[in-house]
Design goal:
Elements lengths: L7 E4 L1 H4 L2 H12 L4 E3 L2 H14 L5 H14 L23 H9 L4 E3 L8 H5 L4 E3 L1 H26 L7 H8 L5 H9 L3
Helix pairs in contact: 2-7, 3-4, 7-9, 8-9
Length: 190
C-alpha cells in the first residue's frame, strides 16, 4: 500500500524493535494515518539488537518482516542520503543516518525513545521534531481518533497465538511507556 498521508515520520530502530509497537505503527500507516520512513541501516539495527536479546528468533524471520514492511510501504525505505549526513553533527554519529533520512524524505518527525540523541537545535534547522512514540500516537489521535482506534483494533484482531482482549493488549503497551495512548484508547467505545 502506498501511503499518501502528508504526515511523514522516520521510525527509529528503537521503536521498530518491539513487535507490538512496530505492529501498531504499521497498522496506523496502513490506514494512512501517517507515512512511515526508515532506512536499511535502521532496519539492520533493530534486527541485530533483537537477535542479541532473543535467541529464539532467526534472522530469516526478521528479514521476512523487513521485506514485508518494504513491500507494504514501497516508498518507506529511504536510500541515497549519505551526502546529507555531512551537513550536520550529532553526539552519536550512529544516529546521523536517521536525521539524514528524515531530511531527504521531508519528514516532519523522528519517532524515537532516544530524544536526547536528536538535539532540538539541529532538528529545528530542518523543521523536524523529535517525538516519543507516546506523544506521536497522541498527535495522531488528535488528528483522527477513529482511524487510530481502527488501527489498534486491527492489530488486536490479528493476534492469534495468543488472542488478546483490548485490556490485555493495552497492558502490553505499558512496557513501551505509552501511558497517554493507553489512557486515551481505554476511553474509546471499542
Amino acid at each position: 500500500m502506498k501511503n499518501k498521508n502528508s504526515l511523514i515520520a522516520v521510525l527509529d530502530a528503537n521503536v521498530l524493535y518491539p513487535a507490538p509497537l512496530r505492529d501498531l505503527l504499521h497498522n496506523l500507516a496502513f490506514l494512512d494515518v501517517f507515512n512511515p520512513k526508515w532506512t536499511s541501516q535502521i532496519q539492520n539495527e533493530w534486527i541485530s539488537n533483537l537477535l542479541i536479546n532473543r535467541k529464539d528468533l532467526r534472522k530469516s524471520q526478521l528479514t521476512r518482516t523487513v521485506n514485508l514492511m518494504n513491500q507494504t510501504f514501497s516508498d518507506a525505505n529511504i536510500i541515497n542520503y549519505s551526502k546529507i549526513e555531512r551537513e550536520f553533527e550529532l553526539l552519536d554519529k550512529n544516529d546521523k543516518h536517521g536525521l539524514a533520512a528524515a531530511i531527504k524524505s521531508e519528514s516532519k518527525f523522528i519517532v524515537t525513545f532516544n530524544i536526547k540523541d536528536f538535539p532540538k537545535s539541529t532538528l529545528s534547522d530542518y523543521n523536524i521534531e523529535r517525538i516519543t512514540p507516546d506523544d506521536f500516537i497522541m498527535k495522531l489521535i488528535k488528528q483522527n481518533e477513529e482511524l487510530v482506534n481502527n488501527a489498534f483494533e486491527n492489530q488486536r484482531l490479528s493476534l492469534k497465538n495468543p488472542t488478546m482482549t483490548k485490556s490485555e493488549l493495552l497492558n502490553v503497551f505499558k512496557t513501551f511507556k505509552l501511558t497517554k495512548t493507553i489512557a486515551r484508547l481505554r476511553k474509546s467505545d471499542r
